[in-house]
Amino acid sequence: MKVEDTNVLVAGLLSPFGPPGEILRMIASGALRLCFDARILTEYEGVLSRPKFRFSAEHTQALMEHIQSEGFSVASSPLPVRLPDPSDEPFLESAVAGKADRLITGNTRHFPSARRQGVPILSPREFLD
């Protein structure tokens, strides 16, 4: 089980031939299941629907339905120590609650080593390697 930061999802849709695109294909094929909570789903939907990205509403909806039906919903708890960017906390909280073996993000520096709660934080390239 993995947790994927929104930036990886967006990067995969914008650039399907890089590491984030490969991860997105793994999700679509069922080879990779995501762990999430309601806050993560809300963020995914909000970001993917932004006009600046011009993603097809139909494709975005299909992706969200796939993530929800194939993924693992968790009820997370607050972290004992806050992250530098509070908007990143739902991802780490969900990883802890779902006992995820990785959190994949394009912003690994937002997750200081001492605050990771034992969850490995990887960039998309590191995850694929």
Secondary structure layout:
Blueprint: E1 2-4, H1 6-14, H2 19-29, E2 35-36, H3 38-48, H4 57-70, E3 72-73, H5 89-97, E4 102-104, E5 121-122, H6 124-128
Parallel strand pairs: 1-4, 2-3, 4-5
Helix pairs in contact: 1-2, 3-4
Tell me the overall shape. Answer: globular
Q: Round the mean pLDDT to the nearest integer and report it.
A: 96
Helix content: 40-55%
The CATH architecture would be 3-Layer(aba) Sandwich
Give the helix/strand class: mainly alpha
Question: What's the β-strand tally?
Answer: 5
Compute the CA-based radius of gyration: 14 Å
Low-confidence stretches: none
In the CATH scheme, the class would be Alpha Beta
Q: CATH topology, what is it called?
A: Rossmann fold
End-to-end distance, in Å?
17 Å
- Give the strand order of the largest sheet, numbering strands 1, 2, ... along the chain: 1-4-5
